[in-house]
Amino acid sequence: MLEEQFKRATELINRHSDILLFTHQTPDGDAIGSLLATAIALENLGKRVVPFCADSVPEVFSFLPKIERVENKIGFQSQSVVILLDCQDFKRTGIDEKDFKILSNRFNLKEIDSIVIDHHPEENKGVLQYTSASVNIIEPKMAATTEILFELFENMKVKINKDIATCLLTGLITDTGGFQHSSTDPRVMRIAAILLTKGARLNKIIRNIFQNKTMPSFKIWGRALERVKIDKTTKAAVSFLNRKDLEECHATLEDLSGVANMLSTIPEARFALFLTEYEPRKISGSLRSEEYKGVDVARLARRLGGGGHKLAAGFEIEGNPEDAFKIVNREILTDI
């Protein structure tokens, strides 16, 4: 199945010289790694590429090669094919209605070619609803979108240099939690080993992503961990942060990376729920679990309009933290 999709994607890429790359808002290592790896690979094939991310790239990924190439403002020229990476829906890219109209008018999205490359479960929406010719490469069995890209690049005979290898390995490492999640299988380790032989900078990736913690990070983690409670009904480890916490600790959302995963390691917890008021009246929820605990957190996230993987999912709610807890209690913390 993937072979056929890879073939069709390759044909589309070969047909065009100007390519626009998208990934989702609040990008993680897999999103940024996918974006940069694809940009470098296609430019090495002689393509003109614009890698786009609506949000500023988190500082933790500033070590990645070509990071300065990522654009976060609409300024598209003559791209004739769109590639959506690590997500399947234009809404997830963070392009607002005004910018989307600019994009639609400039490229006539009903006719533009498109490619979706993602490892999240299929959402039955996304680029397909805007385009007439498209390729969907969606494989939830893959640990990361960069794992799919590795296979695609091999299929396309792309030469993987040290920069591409570093970007691909970054996606693998972040989405497997440093090779700790159950998605880490022999295939993932084989690809990681190959990327190391291609020059991927493992020590640099590990140091920047897992070891460079700032003082605001320590302070905000302290508040989150101090508030942890175990829900009596569901055995969920629950914590929250509001805007005031972030402001007082001078912390950013980037500083919160890993908190939900930490909560899920509590032995008596069946899963973790972490709520963050990242903007006034805008709450993000992160859900995490472990394979042996038997909780499908993606199913829980879908109750609140979110989604994700069986062991890692998320959702968003509008309102103040108190309202959010009422909704979550009703939808999630009463029955799993």
Overview of the structural elements:
The protein is globular and about 55 Å long. Helix 2 packs antiparallel against helix 5, helix 4 runs antiparallel to helix 5 (162-175) and helix 5 (162-175) packs parallel to helix 7 (202-211). With 336 residues, the chain is of the alpha/beta class. The relative contact order is 0.10. Helix 2 (29-44) links the parallel strand 1 and strand 2 (48-52). The chain has helices at 2-15, 29-44, 97-107, 145-156, 162-175, 186-197, 202-211, 215-226, 243-248, 259-264, 297-302, 321-331; strands at residues 18-22, 48-52, 81-85, 113-118, 133-138, 229-230, 236-241, 271-279, 282-289, 307-308, 312-318. The strands form two sheets. It has a six-stranded mixed beta sheet with strand order 6-7-8-9-11-10. It has a five-stranded parallel beta sheet with strand order 2-1-3-4-5. Residues 124-133 have low confidence and may be disordered. The two termini are 34 Å apart.
Coarse shape? globular
Amount of helix: 25-40%
Structural class: alpha/beta
* Sequence of strands across the biggest β-sheet: 6-7-8-9-11-10
Summarize the structure.
Helix content is 39%, strand content 18%. The protein is of the alpha/beta class. The strands form two sheets. The chain has a six-stranded mixed sheet with strand order 6-7-8-9-11-10.
